[in-house]
């Protein structure tokens, strides 16, 4: 028996193609839309059995707010998210918002249809391989910088790191130039680039930011050639 459903995706061609394929398989598609906003209101007004909701960035804050709103206003509507290969955070965020399933954008139509049927039946609709990949990433996370100091430090070149250390130590442009063996105008340019990259307006702010985030210690270590 066909399912009354909606396809909502920011990419209209993708939404219409998927809707056409599902119609050919006997499902009743109430709408295939690509709203930049108002997705939740559209789903609430049509009240399908299942909504396929596309997203390009499942880990972005607020991306699943429409799911929350739909489930609050129409709890009987099962929402299946269509998205890229997700991180564990993306899958968790989708289900935390109230989604019934998660399907990759490149899934075959048979896989999408299976997810629709499971969602309508009240089951979790997530491909085993997708869950396996998510658990694998959770158990064997890729080491990534996870602090503000490291993030800021990666914006700077080695020479700019040295400039930052000297700025934090209170050296003016003349001393920075002499210590680095460069012209004062070049030293001034380096200082301005450091301020711009750190998003601050003065040397004092740069020094305060470096001290507050631990960037000063990291920068000092890099400047001394330490690991």
From TrEMBL:
Pfam families found in the cross-reference section: GerE
SMART domains: HTH_LUXR
Keywords in alphabetical order: DNA-binding, Transcription, Transcription regulation
InterPro entries: CheY-like_superfamily, Sig_transdc_resp-reg_C-effctor, Sig_transdc_resp-reg_receiver, Tscrpt_reg_LuxR_C
Domain Response regulatory stretches: 4-120
Top-level division of the source organism's lineage: Bacteria
Cited CDD domains: LuxR_C_like
All residue ranges annotated as the HTH luxR-type domain in the record: 149-214
Protein name: Transcriptional regulator
Lineage of producing organism: Bacteria, Bacillati, Actinomycetota, Actinomycetes, Kitasatosporales
């Amino acid at each position: 028996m066909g399912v009354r459903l909606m396809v909502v995706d920011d990419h209209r061609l993708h939404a219409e193609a998927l809707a056409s394929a599902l119609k050919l398989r006997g499902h009743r598609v109430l709408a295939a839309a690509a709203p930049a906003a108002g997705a939740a209101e559209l789903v609430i007004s049509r009240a399908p059995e299942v909504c396929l909701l596309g997203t390009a960035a499942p880990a972005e804050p607020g991306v699943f707010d429409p799911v929350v709103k739909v489930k609050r206003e129409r709890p009987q509507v099962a929402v299946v998210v269509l998205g890229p290969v997700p991180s564990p955070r993306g899958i968790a965020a989708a289900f935390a918002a109230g989604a019934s399933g998660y399907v990759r954008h490149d899934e075959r139509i048979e896989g999408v249809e299976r997810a629709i049927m499971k969602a309508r039946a009240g089951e979790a609709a997530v491909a085993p391989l997708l869950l396996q990949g998510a658990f694998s990433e959770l158990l064997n996370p890729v080491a990534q910088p996870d602090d503000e100091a490291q993030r800021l430090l990666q914006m700077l070149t080695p020479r700019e790191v040295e400039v930052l250390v000297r700025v934090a130590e209170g050296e003016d442009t003349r001393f920075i130039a002499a210590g680095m063996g460069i012209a004062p105008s070049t030293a001034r340019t380096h200082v301005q680039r450091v301020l711009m990259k750190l998003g601050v307006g003065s040397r004092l702010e740069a020094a305060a930011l470096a001290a507050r985030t631990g960037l000063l210690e990291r920068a000092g270590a890099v400047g001394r050639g330490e690991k």
